[in-house]
Amino acid sequence: MEVNEAARKFKRGERYTYADYCTWGEDVRCELIDGVVYDMSPAPGWVHQDLSRSFLIQLGVFLEGKTCKVFHAPFDVRLNADDDTVVQPDIVVICDRSMISGTGCTGAPDMVIEILSPSTASKDVLLKFNKYQNAGVREYWIVDPQTKVVRVCILSNGKYDSIDYLDADKIAVNVLEGCEIDIKRVFADLDVG
């Protein structure tokens, strides 16, 4: 089944459940947020993929031999088992391995990184920001490839405190003591203008 054909079967205004989501198969690239389907096709462009790869490598090297694990999309994240929400962040770090099963995890990851795309930016900055905050994701990074800005949101007393990093050399990962991401390396040689 073509992704675009599958996406057309969803009716605007219709609510779907996690049980519905489980029947759609691997060919359907979407997220389900509060029962509403958000199409994720087409696949992200090369800049998005390059940034994702760089974050994945740096986090993966740091986490080698440690308890926490890093995963990249597609990876189903059910923030709350009772909720009809399944998101697919670009990068997640999970330190409680009991949350991991099947094609993803149930519960709030320790860290989420979303790389903005023109088609998903408002969803990532507004809708998912609130979902992650309410679910208790302790650290949420929003990466804007166009401006090369990384917004780091740290959960404090149930709310995110945000700091924007422009042209930073390295950014410390709050939830991973001793881990720093070399942002200059992440954005190196990208022609995103």
Give short descriptive properties of this protein.
193 residues, alpha+beta, tt1808, chain A, three-stranded mixed beta sheet, 5 helices
Q: What separation lies between the terminal Cα atoms?
A: 35 Å
Which residues form runs of ≥5 with pLDDT under 50?
Answer: 1-7
CATH superfamily: tt1808, chain A
Number of helices: 5
| Secondary-structure element string | HHEEHEEEEEEHEEEEEH
CATH architectural group: Alpha-Beta Complex
Give the neighbour order of strands across the main sheet: 3-5-8-9-10-11
Strand content: 25-35%
**How many strands, which pairing sense, and closed or not: the largest β-sheet?**
6 strands, mixed
What best-fitting shape do the alpha-carbon axes yield? globular
Count the E strands.
Answer: 13
Q: What is the radius of gyration?
A: 16 Å
CATH C-level name: Alpha Beta
Helical fraction equals 25-40%
Find the structural class using helix and strand composition: alpha+beta
How would you characterize the overall build of this protein?
The protein is an alpha+beta fold and 193 residues long. It has one domain: tt1808, chain A (Alpha-Beta Complex), CATH 3.90.1570. Helices cover 26% and strands 30% of the residues. The protein has 5 helices and 13 strands. It has helices at 3-8, 18-23, 46-63, 121-135, 183-187; strands at 30-33, 36-39, 69-72, 76-78, 91-94, 100-101, 104-106, 111-115, 139-144, 149-156, 159-166, 170-172, 180-182. It has a 6-stranded mixed beta sheet, sandwiched between helices. It has a 3-stranded mixed beta sheet with strand order 4-7-6, with no helix packed on it. Strands 1-2 form a two-stranded antiparallel ribbon. Strand 12 (170-172) and strand 13 (180-182) form a beta hairpin. The longest helix is centred in the first third of the chain and has 18 residues, at 46-63. It is globular. The N and C termini lie far apart (35 Å). Residues 1-7 have low confidence and may be disordered.
